[in-house]
Structure formats: C-alpha cells, structure tokens
Amino acid sequence: MLKKGELYYPDKDFQKKAWIxxxxxxxxxxKDPVKFWEKLAGELFWFKKxxxxxxxxPPYFQWFVGGKINITENIFRHLSDKPALIWxxxxxxxxPKILTYQELFKSVNQLANALKILxxxxxxxxxxxxxxxxxxxxxxLACCRIGAVHTVVFSAFSPxxxxxxxxxxxxxxxITADGYFRRGQxxxxxxNADEGIKETNxxxxxxxxRTGNEITWDNQKDLWWEELLQKQSQECQAEQMDSEDAMxxxxxxxxxxxxxxxxxxxxxxxxxxxxxGKWIFDFHQDDIFWCxxxxxxxxxxxxxxxxxxxxxxxxxMFEGAPDFPTPDRWAQIIEKxxxxxxxxxxxxxxxxxxxxxxxxxxxxxxxxxxxGSVGEPIDTAAWLWYSKNIGKEKxxxxxxxxxxxxxxxxxxxxxxxxxxxxxxxxxxFPGIKVDILDKQGKAVSEGEEGRLxxxxxxxxxxxxxxxxxxxxxxxxxxxxxxxxxxxTSDSALKDKNGLIRIVGRLDDVIKIAGHRVTTGEMExxxxxxxxxxxxxxxxxPDEIKGEVPVIFIVTWSKKPLDKIKEExxxxxxxxxxPIALPKxxxxxxxxxxxxxxxxxxxxxxxxxxxxxxxxxxxxxxxLPSGEDLGDLSTLANPQSVDDxxxxxxx
Length: 650
Ligand code: WT7
Known about the structure:
By secondary structure, this protein is an alpha/beta fold. Among the domains are: 142 residues, 3-Layer(aba) Sandwich (Rossmann fold); 144 residues, GMP Synthetase, Chain A, domain 3 (2-Layer Sandwich), CATH 3.30.300. Helix content is 31%, strand content 23%. It has 20 helices and 30 strands. A hairpin with a 2-residue loop joins strand 9 and strand 10.
C-alpha cells in the first residue's frame, strides 16, 4: 500500500536496467561540475570542439565556448526507418501519422530550403503559430537547421499576444495553419494570424492545411505549405552554430503585460535537453514517450520534441484535449500506442481523478514503466492516485522541477535510484548546485521554507538573456543575492534526506492548469477597458487547475454588471487568450490600499479563500478581520475590506 510521507524506490528490475543506478554519480559530478558537463557534452556531435567549458562574467555566462554545433545534426544521427514521431489527431476517425527519422529529415530539409528562398538567414527570427501537428516539429527543426531563431506562440494565444511577440523578434516569416480542432470545433487560426501580423514585419505567411475551413488569402503574402515544400530539395546542409548563438526565444509572461523573451543558446540547451531526458526519463531505444505538453510551452519544446529526438526514441504528439471525446481518451492512446513513459501535469492528473477510477478500470497500462509530473507542485493525493491508478504501483514517478528560463529539468529524483516522495521533487540533477536561502541570504535549516536559488556554474541550458531587455534580466534573476546567484522566484524546503519540496511562487505568477500567467499582465489587459478605473487580479486555489484567477474591478460604468463582466472576459481573451479566464469577477467601490497607494492583493486573496473555505453563502461578517487578515493598520481605506467582505458574501 502506498502511504503519505513515505519514501519509494524503484524495483530491482527497473534499477538494473536504468542508465543511472548508482548514487556515486552525484559525488562525481559535484567534484567538478564543469568537467562533468564537458564530459557529457562530448557525447554529442560537434563540428568543432569548444575551447572552454564555462566562462563566467556575471550576470552573464557561457558554456562550451568556441564550440560549433547544430542540434539537428545530433537528432539526425539516428537516421533510420524508426518512427521519430507518432501523431494522434483529435478526431477519432482520422488517420494518425507516423514519421520516421528519415521522413522527418527530408521534410525538415525541404522547409529549411524554402525558408532560405524566402530570405531567412542565420540569426533571423521566425514565428511559429501552429496547433499540435507534425508540421510544428518540422518547422522548429527547419529553423534550427539553418540557424534561424524560432519563436513558437501557443495556438490558443490571442492575436494581440502573437503581435507583441512578432514585433519584439521582428520576424519576417510566420508559419501557421488554416485552423485547428478543439473539442470537436474548428478554430480559424488563420484569421487570428492575419489579425496578429498587423503592424509587424511579417512578409510571408506559410499556411498548413489542417482543417480545410474557409480562410482569407493574400496572394502577396500567403503560401501553402504543401506547394512550397514540393519544389524543394530534400537535402540541406546544417548551419554550423556557435555554441552560444541563440537557438530560440520563447516568451513567458511579464509582470506588466509585456512578455519576456527568454533566450536559449544552441550548445548548452542541446546538451542538457539530451542528458536530462536520458537519465530522468531513462530513455531506451524502444521507448515510446508521451509528453502531453503543447509545443507552445517550454515543456513541449524540450520534452515533446528536442530531448526524445536527440535520444533517438519515438515521441508521441496528440492534437487534442486528453478527455475528448471521452474522459478516457488519454488512456486509450497509452494502450493503443504502447506508451512506455508518460509525462504530464498535476492538473491533468486531478482531472483524470475527478472523472472517477471506473473510467479507466479496464486499462492495465502494461506498457508503462515510468511516469513524470511537471508544472506545479503535485500534492500527495494526486501523487498517490497517479501511482496507484496509472502506474499500477510499479512505475517510479519523477516529479521534475524547472522553468522556461532553465530550458531543461534541474530537480528530480533519478528513476533508477530514487527515492520518490509524494509532494517532493527530489534532488538536483548531478552537476547542479542549488540552495534555499532566507531573505538575508543565509541557508535555511532543514524543514524551513526559503527561496530557491541556483549557484554557479548554474547549468548549460539556463537562459542567456531576456531578449532586448538586459535590465529585466538583471533585475528578475540576478539582483536578490548579487549577480552570481540565480533567483528562481520559487519558495522551497528540504527534508532530512536533502529532497526538495517546491512550495510555490514568490512573485505575481499564477499557475492556471500549469500555465504561467502573471497577475500584472491580466491587470494590464483589464485596465484597457475604458470604463474601468482600476483592478486587481489574484490567484486562488482550485481543485483541478491548481490555481485560478479572480478579478476585482472598480468601474464608473452604469451598464449592467453582467455586461461589464462579459467585457472584462472579452479583454482577457483578446489580450491573452482563453487560458487566463477568471473564475470570478467582483465589482467593488474601492480596493484595499496602503497609504502609499499599493494595492493589497494579499488581503483580497485571504478574503476570497476564507469565503470559499466557509462555503459560498455563509456570512463572513463574523470574521475577526484584524487577526485573520494580517495587519490592516497600514491601510489607507480599511472600510474597503468590509465592503468587499459583504460583496463576496452576497
Ligand atoms: C514554474 C515555472 C518547467 C516546465 C513547465 C513550467 C513551477 C514547475 C514544478 C514542479 C512544483 C513546479 C515553479 C516554476 N513548477 N515544475 N515539478 N513542482 N512547481 O514552466 O511555465 O516557466 O513555470 O512552474 O513555480 O518556477 P514555467
């Protein structure tokens, strides 16, 4: 029986076959992390070997300096008829697609040649705004082949979100599709793309035919993928990239509505993507790996695409939602495709759990041998459910901690060693040094919560900058404890075995179903409403999604409240996309503020969570405001707190 707080270990058989099953690796790596990473890097193919492993010039650093590499040359070391990609479409009656390494290689080269003809050169930005289809993989790899810097934009992001990213990167080419399926509906993606490229430098739009819906066409700009590729040669030389050249830029939420372009470098990213997959997911040649993340997120970049392909295994890509058209769609796919490693987010696990175990009783999941979790803390209940109902108590669970900024996993137990402890992510990957510090920079003691930081030499795949914004880079990551310590923005604690538990974010990031959104960017979107004077967004706990946003608005509008709320939702959809939809919107007269005018979101969060805990309609006026809500004496307008209490209580 599985129990809370216990430590689990892999069984003998798993241990025996695992790449890493001896703890000594940690000590070996610790002795000289740079040398350790250099040894790992040596197993990739380099056109030219690096001269220096690690170069530190705080807050900047470089890895494998002087080395020349191309990630696609490393992927296509595995040229064969083995499936690189298995693609399952959303409609159940549509044919899946399987692309072998050989086939993938040809298409990548064709698109790479086409991009060149369109004038894309090494270092140029290319936008990719595609659903979960094989063309997304081909597009990303084609960019890498010629040294173009891809920026993938999640297909459910709004045209405005696409526009700011394209404006920032100055991309001249965008790759998109006519449409995509979402829960049986066709979404007109081309229309969003057309809207999003307004006021950008986009000259050419390559359009994949996916859904066949009607779209508007501009003969000057638009090109059909199919027609364009047909004419191209299936051979294309790989560009020799400097280890430190930018490989891609992926945007993550900024606090003001302006997203941060996280820059990743060719050499370090390839090395860490390769090795974390090999050791944490224990990739072996016959594995079928399913990472459920869309390529629009870093998890999709690294573990749906680059890491499994660098390791020469088969990756599975599923176009749809895991519970469509039936709650057990994901389970059907695991069985049908004999998935051996399954990597998903706690929000998905909680959703499967909510549907009820009877939905999956008939599945034995015999092919599965390892499970993974990512994106937010996995609570003990979800961990145990995952282990019992999907892992059938035979699969180790690796809870992997990392960030868009780290590019690849940094913390996780190694599956051939363990231990696995529910709600704990595990140890730093060999060669990575972290610490948990208090505000003053002193290491906290065992069991105490503090701030998670990464110490030199960091890791090869850590971000190299925030695109065109060095101040932001310095301020966000390298200023809390000086410019030699990377601040993660997460709070964490360590148990007596050194296992790390991630508690949550310390900044204004909320994780909605594992997706990263800042309250600041949501506030910026809401404030665009002409009749809203101010607003505050908070994240509150949610049973399935982990966290959901709640919005407080102050408005002078005389329109009915429902109408205003609808408009607020409209602004969120327009500026960000449907992932950030609020659970609740409250219209209030005033927001609690300090005398210096700072909105006290902490108080709002407490009010809402207390109300939820007490049951929706219960009277809150009996709450002893002073103590429970923290110190209210610094508020400029304490009356606002009572008003809001009454409002939530209505
Ligand atoms: C933030 C980064 C890393 C890929 C997906 C998210 C949270 C991530 C875990 C985990 C607890 C986690 C952290 C982190 N997070 N993985 N295993 N346990 N929290 O990337 O969107 O950049 O978000 O996600 O708060 O800082 P991201």
